[in-house]
């Protein structure tokens, strides 16, 4: 156990990470120690500085120091490695982050590729799969154990057959991808329903959306009058209402006709004859082509919004959504293709692998791959993700799901000696699965790693080895370490009085908050009922919600909550109330919508990705504030409008920094540096704008005030007061109105979005749909959220919240619990009623949580500071890199190991091409894809297994550089830093390249940057000064003899 359990003591620095003077964001010169090889939880109220310490300080500094071992060129390509604001950091390890903000936005990524299970499946099919001819479907003969034959031909029909490799089975490379959809699995096609504006109108009245006021139908290339001629040729006219057209007649309008030829274009010849400046030509004639074929053709070449509004995404018609080409779809294992395997849920795949029967040789070949698949699948199940299909697009995953998949990948990597930083890993996790998550985190810890997790869940806090409480409040009122030590000791009566008084976390753990359902009975009140919900895994269920009440939808991850609320209810109401075109999910009907006037949906998307976005701009309250400034006599006298008081548009902002207040100075491989703008001194606006005041405050002053202070300043402005009061109601009164959105915590951003909606004027009863609004919120912050939701309901509005948080569920008027499990075993209504009624349901998992059945957590196992995992050696097995002959070797940890042998025996093959390569590849797998792209490719290592790997740095035996342009400065990169210093701090200002003697602009024109010039040395020409020039004085060199020859060209 740690001797410094109270945060002090004389433990060696190797036992811990020591952070001193951390000032990132709102951290107030924080000093903190974090034990190595332990699970540490950092907690505190939303906005207190948890992520600033964990992600923006620990992770960034740990990753920066490791990546600094790369060359300056690679670091420049990798991006900006800014140093966090801190005085010192010791004991840091190479760091990897698994956060909720790293969502996947690549349409080529799937659950299978993200978890790497699909990579193992490709290897499995390539080694033991059965290949068929894509032309005749005949089975091809076996090709040997490795299955890596060259291109061959089918013995039955003679068709060319590609080699069966793992690449052939990848939809992310040309040889494996479907040529039609290029591996995306989907295609955009016109949906005829989206072309109809109003089915009760006639075509002449504008039933088709792309009909212009003058009667021209865009994309069809004809006018309504010309279309009428086509219609008459088929026995109807454009004056028939669209809904009365037969299928055959509708097909003519949408898909064209070859019965008669018609003129194209919107202008008749008579109109063209009146044109000036160009020669009028008759309209081109041809068969009417319809709208659908033309728009489909446009979609093949461009994807602009005007065209996409008529299109929907469908599974690719060529590959049926499998993403794979014909050759890949012709490979089978156990009678099914790899895409059919990938359509399985993770838990089904686990069982399929277990039941797979192979022949003796194939079993031997496949066993390592099958073990890897099962290990990864079991981890995903343990993390509550067993319901996910491997073929599911990663873009559709929630932030919590994507985070847990990455976590499973890290646990499976087997790396040790790594600092893992996780940002609220329990996000979106059902209470039933919390203990499983803690088990996975402890696996990561027990593998010899330091795990730091940002959490708000009390069970996670108590299950940790070490707890750090940041606070006491949010923003400027936080940023201090209130407690650092074992979780149990926080509840001890001996805790310092200041900690006991200020720590909201201590109060929470000591006296958990309880909310009781109000006495109002909603059993017989008005209801909103969805009938026959059958989208995705929903089993045709009928679900009722209470109007003018707080409804909470619960269920395990994958039970169908988001499908029911977002894809069916929200989309149906959006279409009915707001005219949206996206179709809702499958259902038979929705009753009880008559009293609803508006739908507002609040999800987890960020409020802004640049520092220019802030609470003032997002909530639109800044528009009203700017209008107040523009109405002042000073502004009107100077001719200033509302636009002049914005830092995002030209006119009133400082143009040198473009309203940012700082200038960004590029520092290449050292990261950018922001310096105060020399023109506006950081004030963002020009002097003319800042001369205008409203109640003695400039517009910049207002942006620097807190929400509470601005609320007092504009107390008599109803529009401004309403929005700012909403921000205060959700507990954000402390925020600076102009605080950049990029510095807001996840919980703060969620509440800003909620306040933006609450601040809008009411227009009848509104339905609010919220998707996990407690994300990033401390239990103390959840109280503010519940108060805001209660205020909404009190005004006659309805709230439907998708949530796992027990604090919110206990406070609900009505709870709908879906399940009982995920995927195919879910999608049913398990319980519905008040929280107390649901708690009494024996089949309900959330009922069990309400009864406290999941509250007990296993105690954290204590281990010595140098646990068995970190002491175990690095084990390399069956190494065959280059000339190594299935070598098995153990390398002790924490020791100096020398590898020796005769030249060519395989020393470098083992040390560099195997050990370093394997370590680098494993660590790089945890980096973002853009970072992996710039790292030097690995893949040299050939071995059966490797355990106990750690992040590695290689210093290879490179021969001395024989380049006259190379110096000690260039080799150590000191020269690059000096050039950068001179370019940024020197006068006059010059580019860094001007200080490089290896650059044309900086090199001396005479010596071209070499520092020396080669000239003739007269003394070197005379080898014997006692002789005359013509008598052998220069006879010591060939050149001298030539020029000194008395009969030669020179002397003559």
At a glance:
The protein is of the alpha/beta class and 1052 residues long. The protein is built from 39 helices and 34 strands. Among the domains are: 16-103 and 397-510, Rossmann fold (3-Layer(aba) Sandwich); 112-140 and 156-184 and 327-383, ABC transporter ATPase  like domain (ABC transporter ATPase like fold, Up-down Bundle); 188-268 and 282-315, ABC transporter ATPase domain-like (Helicase, Ruva Protein, domain 3); 525-606 and 761-855, P-loop containing nucleotide triphosphate hydrolases (Rossmann fold, 3-Layer(aba) Sandwich); 874-898 and 905-947, no CATH class.
Protein topology:
Layout: E1 16-22, E2 30-35, E3 39-44, H1 50-67, H2 72-78, E4 88-90, E5 95-98, H3 111-115, H4 117-128, E6 130-131, E7 152-153, E8 160-161, E9 186-190, E10 216-217, E11 222-223, H5 224-233, H6 247-255, E12 261-263, H7 269-272, E13 285-287, H8 292-299, H9 305-308, E14 311-315, H10 326-329, E15 331-333, E16 336-337, H11 338-342, H12 346-355, H13 360-382, H14 399-413, E17 419-423, H15 434-446, E18 450-454, H16 458-463, E19 466-471, E20 480-485, H17 487-490, H18 497-502, H19 504-510, E21 527-533, E22 541-546, E23 550-554, H20 561-578, E24 589-591, E25 596-602, H21 615-618, H22 621-630, H23 633-637, E26 662-665, E27 673-676, H24 687-690, H25 699-704, H26 707-713, H27 718-729, H28 746-758, E28 765-771, H29 779-794, E29 798-802, H30 806-810, E30 814-819, E31 828-833, H31 835-839, H32 845-850, H33 868-871, E32 874-879, E33 887-891, H34 907-924, H35 929-934, E34 945-947, H36 968-972, H37 974-985, H38 1018-1021, H39 1038-1044
Parallel strand pairs: 3-18, 3-19, 5-17, 17-18, 23-29, 23-30, 25-28, 28-29
Antiparallel strand pairs: 1-2, 1-4, 6-15, 7-8, 9-14, 10-11, 12-13, 15-16, 19-20, 21-22, 21-24, 26-27, 30-31, 32-33, 32-34
